[in-house]
Specification:
- By secondary structure, this protein is mainly beta.
- It is built from four helices and 29 strands.
- The strands form nine sheets. It has a four-stranded mixed sheet with strand order 2-8-7-4. A four-stranded mixed sheet has the order 9-15-14-11, with no helix packed on it. The chain has a four-stranded mixed sheet with strand order 17-24-23-20, with no helix packed on it.
- Strand 28 and strand 29 form a beta hairpin.
- The longest helix is centred in the first third of the chain and has 6 residues.
């Protein structure tokens, strides 16, 4: 071994600093396409857009890597060079109400290692109908209410965005009320005086319509009981409540307490709380005490899945007057994920006559935690004729450090930590 330069091997330790040591091809790719396309639908042709022939795609082992997700949204058709959908892509699940929905993927080529960042802009389609939080809205209004008095109604919610979101409302024609919509605030305005002796109850149908094509709608019944005066709606102490908590906090942990007061007395000033619009997922993660306004954790909070929540809370007095506040909750990351090492490629067997510095494998290291908790260090065992070279982002090249001799050593077991 002394004659062949293998008398001494040196320890190799590498650190992940996300340093790019190989240049990216200019002009990373960006595609826009509608959500809910069938699996196998074409997003774009990466071979054409990168100026590669199909033989190059295959010989360089072109593939799609998606970081930080358990789902694989797209793949490459090696016969055509098309980037195609591999499963259902739902914009609302990915991005909620954000106006822009972008999925970042990596297009990886080998020999030499080359990485292209691909931005997938998922466009909204009108696949959701407007929904009210309840099927029936119960209201109690005193007959002494003055003409022009307004009564708040919870707005409808549509998971779609932009033009596909709620655009207008239609109130069933009636003699007593008209509808007023201002800045997404929906109210009934009293057009003619109430008379409890003539009509104790009023049922109205309110319809919310979106702007999609075809147009979708949702309805709610407004049931009004005519009583005697309730002059004040509840008032929250804060317009916005903010809180933060570490992920994996125990169930029943108190996140924050909201509070509203009502200037009326008796039942008119008796305030109860409930969530306004929250997603089904958020509803399963948090609960609110109807009497105290205390919000608690009822599910597993995972920062890697979602790092913030926004919800509305409704305060209602004894006769149905409403007010709302907003609750913002930030989730802090804890170091609850171990780094994972992926062997992306390995030239096996390796010819013994390869030159020192030859790339024989590709390693990828990922940690789902964020910031400092997501930084990892990578090292390779001593006394082997190989080393790890940082390449692009969290990729490493496994390269030879000397001449291999099969007659001396026919195979190596390499440990990477």
């Amino acid at each position: 071994m002394g004659d062949k330069g293998f008398s001494a091997l040196f320890p190799i330790i590498c650190y992940v600093f996300f340093i790019v040591t190989m240049p990216l091809v200019k002009g990373d790719l960006s595609y826009s396409f509608p959500e809910e396309m069938k699996p196998g639908s074409v997003i774009g042709n990466v071979a054409k857009d990168l100026g590669l022939n199909l033989m190059t795609l295959s010989s360089r082992k072109a593939r799609v890597d998606i970081e930080g997700t358990r789902k694989r949204y797209c793949d490459i058709n090696m016969n055509t060079g098309d980037l195609i959908t591999s499963e259902r892509i739902d914009r609302e699940s990915l991005c909620g109400e954000k106006p822009s929905c972008v999925v970042k993927i990596d297009l990886v080529l080998e020999n030499p290692l080359e990485l292209h960042r691909v931005s997938l802009h998922v466009q909204d389609v009108n696949d959701n109908s407007p929904k009210f939080r309840q099927n029936v809205i119960e209201m109690e209004i005193r007959e002494s209410a003055e003409k022009g008095s307004r009564f708040s109604i919870g707005a409808a919610h549509d998971a779609d965005i932009g033009q596909n979101d709620v655009q207008r409302y239609i109130l069933q024609p009636n003699e007593k009320f008209i509808l007023v919509v201002e800045n997404k605030k929906v109210e009934l305005s009293l057009e003619n005086k109430l008379d409890r002796e003539k009509q104790k109850e009023i049922n109205l149908i309110l319809t919310a319509l979106d702007g999609g094509s075809p147009q979708k709608s949702g309805t709610v019944v407004i049931h009004i009981t005519v009583l005697d005066a309730n002059d004040n709606a509840p008032v929250f102490k804060q317009a916005v409540y903010k809180a933060s908590l570490p992920e994996n906090s125990p169930l029943e942990t108190v996140v924050i307490t909201v509070s509203a007061t009502d200037a009326d007395e008796g039942v008119n000033g008796d305030v109860t709380y409930q969530f306004g619009h929250v997603s089904d997922n958020d509803f399963n993660l948090f609960s609110i005490d109807s009497k105290t306004g205390q919000i608690k954790i009822t599910g597993v909070i995972d920062c890697e899945e979602i790092n913030s929540f926004e919800m509305s809370v409704e305060a209602k007095d004894g006769l149905g007057l409403l007010s709302y506040t907003k609750v913002l909750i930030d989730v802090n990351d804890v170091n609850d994920n171990a780094p994972v090492i992926y062997l992306k490629s390995l030239a096996n067997p390796t010819p013994e006559n390869v030159s020192p510095g030859t790339e024989v494998g590709i390693i990828n290291v990922q940690d789902r935690d964020s910031e400092k908790n997501g930084q990892v260090r990578c090292s390779i065992q001593q006394n082997v004729p190989f080393k790890l070279v940082p390449s692009i982002k969290n990729y490493y090249s496994l390269v030879t450090t000397g001449q291999l001799d099969r007659e001396l050593v026919s195979d190596y077991n390499i440990t990477i930590t």
